[in-house]
Structures are given as structure tokens and as C-alpha cells.
Amino acid sequence: MGALRRGPGGRAGERGGATICLLAVGLVFVVVGVFGAAVTSARAARQQARAAADFAALAGAARALGGTTAACGHAAEIAAANGGHLVGCRLDGLDVLVTAEVTVAPLPGLTRVVRVSARAGPVRG
């Protein structure tokens, strides 16, 4: 009869199957974590673009009586101060309509641009 072969730890019949399973489970956790971080990064960029557009529209509306140049110039400053970039601005009467964008790279090699529009003006009614 043949003798049982024993591994380095002295146990018979082990070939490292649990190690492979543990590595596979660890890899799944890493992939899910990276995906979650990318989604969270994109959501944060959307919120940042929304805040930049809202504040830029309010700042532009405060200077609407000075004309398009004054309103849009001030709106661009405020958008930049909030981490955004003003890509569109126009006056519609005393209302200011702005579009701000934020660039986000949720994963290396993957860059997305988030654009948000906002409108502000005097109260009517």
C-alpha cells in the first residue's frame, strides 16, 4: 500500500484550493470597491457642477442691470471659485442663464465632463 503524501504543513491531500478561493473573493471586493469609488466621484462632480452653476447664476443676476458683460463676468468668477468652468452665459431680460461644467476622472484614463445649467432672476408675481 502506498503512503499518504503530506505537504509542508504536514496535512494530507491539501493542494491550495482555499488560497485560490480567497484570492478570488478578494479580487471581487477590490473590483466592487473601485467601481463604487468611481460612481461616488461622478456624483460628487455633479454636485460640484450644480453648486457652481447655481451660485454663478445668482451672482450674475445680482449684476444683471450692468449688462451681459458685467453679469457674465461676475458669474464666471463665482463659477471658478466653486470649482467649475462657465461655458455659457446669457441674459434674458433680468434673468441670467448659465451653464457650468466640471471635469472629473473617476478612474485612470477615464475622463468625463459634467454640465449643469441654472437660471436666476428677480421674483415675479
- The overall average pLDDT, rounded, is 88
Q: C-alpha Rg, in Å?
A: 28 Å
The major beta sheet can be summarized as: 3 strands, antiparallel
What's the helix count? Answer: 2
The parts where pLDDT drops under 50 for at least 5 residues are none
Global morphology? rod-shaped
Structural class: alpha+beta
The succession of helices and strands, N to C, reads HHEEE
Strand order of the largest sheet: 1-2-3
Strand content: 25-35%
In short:
Helix content is 48%, strand content 26%. With 125 residues, it is α+β, with helices and mostly antiparallel strands.
Write a structural description:
The protein has helices at 17-62, 68-81; strands at 85-92, 95-107, 110-120. The chain is of the alpha+beta class. It has one domain (19-120). It has a three-stranded antiparallel sheet. α1 packs antiparallel against α2.
